[in-house]
Amino acid sequence: MRNLLNRKSLGDVIFDVVNILVLLALMFVTLYPMYYVIVASVTNNLALLATPGFLWYPKGFTLGSFKLAFTHPLIVSGYKNILLIMAAGLFVNILLTLFTGFFLASKNVYFRKPILFMILFTMFFNGGMIPNYLNIRSLGLYDTLWALILPGAVSVYNCIICRTAIEAVPESLSESARIDGANDLTILFRIIAPLIKPTMVVLLLYYGIGHWNSWFSASIYIRDNYKLPIQNVLRAILIANSDILNSAATENDQINQFAETIKYAAIVITTVPILFIYPFLQRYFVKGVMIGAVKG
User: Fold this and answer.
1) If both were cysteines, with which of 9, 87, 101, 170 could 163 make a disulfide (CB 3.0 to 4.6 Å apart)?
2) pLDDT band at 16, cuts 50/70/90?
């Protein structure tokens, strides 16, 4: 009887085979571009140009493109700038998001609904590119890294996630702390923040990826090439904008020697940090999103 139940029909077998083939094809389409970029980054420049189509293994293995990338002044300054933006930006992001989420989750506060309306209003409407540009210039933030940090310091969507996570914390804990003399800052940082740690990690991941991948704001607000974050330098390399690269480099034959492979090396350099960080945060991801999105 058990053998009859475990025996699959011809239709089930065909479905399983087709399903496996489709999933394998999707996996290949997803992973091969990443594999190609890694292999191309360690392939000889001439061999890469002479090999159109698929590239299965490095031809003329060399790390020259990585050496040139890590010694190029703009790539080095781009990495330094993005690390400064991440360090200052994430601190400002998570601090303001916690304050906003705590306010929105609080009860019996004055003008709560009007303030909530104004916060949500900014989620759907803004002044536009030109007013934002004029605002940045009038505040003295133009051509500074603060122009990439302060204008987007708070995400309304992330504040809503934070508010929902705080609302899931039992109110009795806050009431007990107030009876013992704790103020709002003590309640927020000593009680609530540790309890919503998974949500905070997810918010840090959201903000971090946003800072790391952002390039449009810098292309508008940053004039000095040495203040550009790494994504803008990568964009200049990928669209073959040699002016922005050669403006900071002396005459060097290596630039021409690795003209093609340095593009792939730059992609690897700008992508690997996020790929290495994400697995360590993955265990918080699903739990944090569920806590911040569902209130039971």
Assistant:
1) 101
2) confident
